[in-house]
Specification:
The complex is a heterodimer.
Chain A: E1 4-7, E2 10-13, E3 19-25, E4 31-38, E5 42-51, E6 54-57, E7 64-70, E8 73-78, E9 87-96, E10 104-108, E11 112-116
Parallel strand pairs in A: 2-11
Antiparallel strand pairs in A: 1-3, 3-8, 4-5, 4-9, 5-6, 7-8, 9-10, 9-11
Chain B: E1 4-7, E2 10-14, E3 19-25, E4 31-37, E5 43-49, E6 52-56, E7 59-64, E8 69-74, E9 83-90, E10 98-100, E11 104-109
Parallel strand pairs in B: 2-11
Antiparallel strand pairs in B: 1-3, 3-8, 4-5, 4-9, 6-7, 7-8, 9-10, 9-11
The chains are: A mainly beta, B mainly beta.
Chain lengths: 117, 110
């Protein structure tokens, strides 16, 4: 399984401050994702990356930006944190298994619990 | 838009019972994933299916592509199986993004 770590694990921040969450993988997986998990909404895609400097928006991208300057790191930035961004954030990678294009596994990070006060 | 529906939302069982969780989706998919999340914990991938059936220990996952339906079965359930089980689907050509169901909260009582 791919090694994937998120930092920090917990953060409390004030409204209006910028926040950056980091996701680090130990293998050269091409696809990386940021999801947020909220009660009543489940998991939703914020942004994803399909290579270095190649990123795209997901379902709930407003207020977030991402960067991927190295294969192993995918950063999520809340440009000006708001209370609606209080959530648990999960990074994930997908890795090909078996038939190319059809079979792929998913590995999630341990999550970052972010509270905006 | 692809919708992923899970049922039931909540399930309480006695230890040893056979458990089934269902997942239905609305459009053609490239793969379906079953995930497990313990309280306060991370998310673990249990299965990835594109056809047929897979088994791992006491867990069995099946998928019927024509009916757009998948089931997760747990045989001889145990209190340690208590968790949220999440169904997620990937669409063809979507950079492997997943669309998630809302999850099934399973509680297994001793």
């Amino acid at each position: 399984d791919a090694g994937i770590t998120q930092s920090p694990r917990h953060k409390v921040t004030e409204t209006g401050t910028p926040v950056t969450l980091r996701c680090h993988q130990t293998e050269n997986h091409r696809y990386m994702y940021w999801y947020r998990q909220d009660p009543g909404h489940g998991l939703r895609l914020i942004h994803y990356s399909y290579g270095v400097k190649d990123t795209d928006k997901g379902e709930v991208s407003d207020g977030y930006s991402v960067s991927r300057s190295k294969t192993e790191d995918f950063l999520l930035t809340l440009e000006s944190a708001t209370s609606s961004q209080t959530s648990v954030y999960f990074c994930a990678i997908s890795e090909a298994r078996g038939v190319p294009g059809a079979n792929y596994g998913y590995t999630f990070g341990s999550g970052t619990r972010l509270t905006v006060v | 838009k692809n919708e992923v529906e899970q049922s039931p939302q909540n399930l309480t069982a006695q230890e040893g019972e056979f458990i089934t969780i269902n997942c239905s989706y609305s459009v053609g998919i490239s793969a379906l994933h079953w995930l497990q999340q313990h309280p306060g914990g991370g998310i673990v991938s249990l299965f990835m299916l594109s056809s047929g059936k897979k088994k791992h220990g006491r867990l069995i996952a099946t998928i019927n592509i024509q009916e757009k339906h998948s089931s997760l079965h747990i045989t001889a359930s145990h209190p340690r199986d208590s968790a949220v089980y999440i169904c997620a689907v990937g669409l063809p050509g979507s950079a492997r993004q997943l669309t998630f169901g809302s999850g099934t909260q399973l509680t297994v009582l001793p």
